[in-house]
Design goal:
Layout (H helix, E strand, L loop, with lengths): L5 H24 L4 H16 L21 H12 L2 E2 L2 E2 L4 H17 L3 H4 L5 H30 L13 H28 L3 H11 L3 H19 L3 H18 L2 H19 L7 H15 L4 H12 L22 H15 L6 H8 L10 H17 L5 H10 L7 H13 L2 H4 L5
Antiparallel strand pairs: 1-2
Length: 434
């Protein structure tokens, strides 16, 4: 696997700087309260072992991977960091032991996943996502343990509202800071892997926190407090509701995977039939996602853009006279609209969301009459038709798009495309080597 790009390298380095000394310290001093460490380690490993695998081929992001893909593991990691007592006895784990147990249990759970789930990790992007997730897990666990234990050891909570009825709210506040820390790290990793602005990536991560994020926080608090009174037997009882949610999400996973397979097959069908050049749909989809991220679209909106870009030419399969080189940009406006309507009719039969079909149907309309996703697909497809098929070079293709901003192409989308191309993001270099 190639070295992680940009900020991801620094996040991984920080996680390594936490993990290596923690492992060495724990190996030298041994585990304090090994039964407690084993119980929380098993909970973390179980949550990781049944982690829902995101649909193959999806780009990383909050919609694909949030703390919610392994909520039991995330809640168990944070709960162990916040634990201050078991069965009436004080907890004695230190920050290094928390990091070591969380790291070891996460790796053990990942190794124990079924073979069908582990296969995706052989693909470099999946390995990158796994490394990002592990780095975040180590860092936010270390952050939570450091904050919690520092307050205890310094006596800052001894005579303040941190105990008694205020103890749980204090833990909730610390949890909120931990989730914010994790969102900041995740946004930096998203920005590094996918490009786009950091503010948009952070906003996407923060929007993903309500829902399953609240369930993770609530479970973490209960799992940290209940053993202090009821002992370790409280752990499975506290984690069971969240485990049921996680397993239910995993059982519902084949539908998006099947939908993506259908979309990909249709995109390839136009190439196999000779209607479009090899790789055309994939190039338009990759660049359309990048432009959408540049414009601040959410993960759900990016998926709509990607699906529409993959299937934007399927209407050409029904044409009696094929379009030369599959390039629709040089065609008359009415012919482009006719092909777009044909494509939309096919897309409506695939079971994808209705928004995808609407984008495909409106891709050839004047941009003021089309949704933003359709404007993106239209402009990127035009660039691909002009630049990648040899009609003209990349610079002249952008110039032609800029000259057409009065009617066909929205200026904001064209400029976003120019910025994305100027950056030369790694995931686009293979698609657009020029």
């Amino acid at each position: 696997m190639s070295p992680p790009p940009g900020p991801a390298r620094w996040v991984h380095a920080a996680a390594g700087a936490c993990a290596l000394p923690a492992l060495a310290w724990t190996a030298w001093h041994g585990l304090a309260q090994p039964r407690v460490a084993l119980a929380y380690g098993l909970l973390i490993a179980l949550g990781e072992a049944v982690r829902r695998r995101p649909p193959a081929g999806d780009a990383p992001g909050a919609g694909r991977e949030v703390a919610g893909t392994a909520p039991v593991s995330a809640a168990g990691s944070i709960a162990y960091a916040l634990l201050d007592g078991v069965g009436g006895d004080p907890a004695t784990q230190g920050v290094p032991q928390v990091v070591a147990v969380v790291l070891g249990a996460t790796l053990a759970g990942a190794a124990g996943r079924p073979a069908a789930t582990r296969r995706g990790r052989r693909h470099p992007p999946a390995r990158s996502i796994a490394a990002d997730r592990l780095a975040r897990r180590v860092l936010h666990s270390a952050f939570a343990a450091l904050c919690c234990q520092a307050l205890h050891h310094l006596g800052a909570l001894a005579h303040r509202p941190g105990y008694g009825p205020y103890h749980a709210p204090a833990l909730l506040l610390l949890l909120a800071l931990t989730m914010l820390c994790d969102a900041l790290l995740a946004a930096a990793l998203d920005r590094s892997r996918r490009g786009g602005g950091y503010a948009a990536a952070l906003g996407e991560r923060l929007r993903a926190l309500p829902g399953i994020g609240i369930a993770v926080c609530a479970t973490a608090v209960v799992t940290a407090l209940a053993p202090g009174v009821a002992g370790l037997w409280a752990l499975p009882v506290c984690a069971l509701p969240l485990l049921v949610i996680q397993l239910s999400a995993r059982l519902g996973e084949p539908a998006p995977a099947t939908r993506r397979q259908t979309v990909t097959s249709l995109a390839r069908a136009t190439e196999i039939a000779g209607c479009t050049p090899a790789g055309h749909a994939g190039r338009v989809a990759a660049l359309s996602r990048a432009v959408g991220r540049e414009l601040g679209l959410s993960q759900g909106e990016l998926t709509v853009v990607e699906y529409a870009a993959l299937m934007h030419d399927v209407g050409q399969l029904s044409l009696v006279d094929p379009v030369p080189a599959g390039a629709t940009e040089p065609l008359p406006a009415e012919e482009r609209r006719r092909i777009a309507r044909l494509s939309g009719a096919v897309v409506r039969q695939t079971g994808v969301p209705a928004e995808v079909a609407q984008v495909v149907e409106h891709q050839a309309d004047p941009y003021r009459e089309a949704p933003l996703a359709a404007r993106i697909v239209r402009t990127v497809n035009a660039y691909e038709d002009l630049a990648a098929t040899g009609a003209c070079g990349p610079r002249r293709a952008l110039e032609r798009l800029r000259r057409a901003t009065a009617y066909d192409h929205e200026p904001r989308v064209v400029e976003a495309l120019a910025r994305v191309l100027a950056r030369g993001e790694p995931e686009l270099r293979e698609c657009f080597p020029h």
